[in-house]
Write a structure and sequence with these properties.
Layout (H helix, E strand, L loop, with lengths): L12 H20 L8 E3 H8 L3 H9 L5 E4 L2 E5 L2
Antiparallel strand pairs: 1-3, 2-3
Amino acid sequence: MNSQPSMMIAVDQAVMLKLLDEMAALRRAVERVNMTPKSEWITISECAELLGRTPKTIREWVREGKIESRRQGTVLMVKAA
């Protein structure tokens, strides 16, 4: 247990209710957080959108060896940086 002395303070009921509502909202937000790590590989379209380039440019970079790529079935994927 904590060896620090405890202290009591008076809190207005309306303030306490607001704090409890805010804590409940925070709890709900935390419960909705997705902790799944992002994929190491993304599609050409996703890469183009992230980099502000066209899919054609991304495919050119793949052909030139500027971006690592692999096929996932028929879909060309690039390594996310």
